[in-house]
TrEMBL record:
<dbReference type="InterPro" id="IPR000014">
    <property type="entry name" value="PAS"/>
</dbReference>
<dbReference type="GO" id="GO:0005634">
    <property type="term" value="C:nucleus"/>
</dbReference>
<dbReference type="GO" id="GO:0001222">
    <property type="term" value="F:transcription corepressor binding"/>
</dbReference>
<dbReference type="GO" id="GO:0005737">
    <property type="term" value="C:cytoplasm"/>
</dbReference>
<protein>
    <recommendedName>
        <fullName>PAS domain-containing protein</fullName>
    </recommendedName>
</protein>
<dbReference type="GO" id="GO:0000122">
    <property type="term" value="P:negative regulation of transcription by RNA polymerase II"/>
</dbReference>
<feature type="region of interest" description="Disordered">
    <location>
        <begin position="155"/>
        <end position="175"/>
    </location>
</feature>
<feature type="domain" description="PAS">
    <location>
        <begin position="9"/>
        <end position="48"/>
    </location>
</feature>
<dbReference type="GO" id="GO:0043153">
    <property type="term" value="P:entrainment of circadian clock by photoperiod"/>
</dbReference>
<keyword id="KW-0539">Nucleus</keyword>
<dbReference type="GO" id="GO:0032922">
    <property type="term" value="P:circadian regulation of gene expression"/>
</dbReference>
<dbReference type="GO" id="GO:0000976">
    <property type="term" value="F:transcription cis-regulatory region binding"/>
</dbReference>
<dbReference type="Pfam" id="PF08447">
    <property type="entry name" value="PAS_3"/>
</dbReference>
<dbReference type="InterPro" id="IPR035965">
    <property type="entry name" value="PAS-like_dom_sf"/>
</dbReference>
<dbReference type="InterPro" id="IPR050760">
    <property type="entry name" value="Period_circadian_regulator"/>
</dbReference>
<dbReference type="InterPro" id="IPR013655">
    <property type="entry name" value="PAS_fold_3"/>
</dbReference>
Amino acid sequence: AHPFGLRRAAPLLGYLPQDLVGTPVLFYLHPEDRPLMLAIHKKILQYAGQPFDHSPIRFCARNGEYVTIDTSWSSFVNPWSRKVSFIMGRHKVRTGPLNEDVFTAPKVLKSKALEVDIQELSEQIHRLLLQPVHSSGALGLCSNSASHEQFLSIASSSDSNGFPPEEAQVLRPMT
C-alpha cells in the first residue's frame, strides 16, 4: 500500500502514482523510522478504532531528501470479526526537504539490501493485523474529521483486496 493519496504524493514527495504502485510504504520511510510503523500498528490495535497522534515520521522524497510529517491515526474495526478492516492516517508536513525540487532524480539510488528489513517488518505488521482486537465498545469507530491543512493518507487493511474510490484516500495493505 502507499503512504499517501496518490494524487497528493506528487507535489509533496515527487513520486508519480506509477512510481508508488507495487512498493511497500516502508520503502519510503527513513530507515530509522521504519520500526515506528510497527509500533503504530500495535497502538492501532490497542486503541481499537479510537484516533491518536504519533511521533513524526520521515518520508524520503524522490530527490533523496526527507520530509518530516506529523501523524495521527484511526481505524475501523469490523464488529463481527473484531479485526481491523482499514487504517487511516492523517498527516501534516512539519518540515520539507532542503531542495524543494522533489522531482529531481536522487544522486544515489536506494540500496536493494534494505529490502530484507522492509520485508520482515511488513510480515510482522501483517501478522499483527490478523489478530482480533480486544476493546471496550470502540469497535467500528472511524475518525474522519475534516481539515483545511494539506495532508497525506495512509491505509492498510487485513481483509480487503480492492481499492475503494480514489476520493476516500484509502489504499490497499502495506504488505
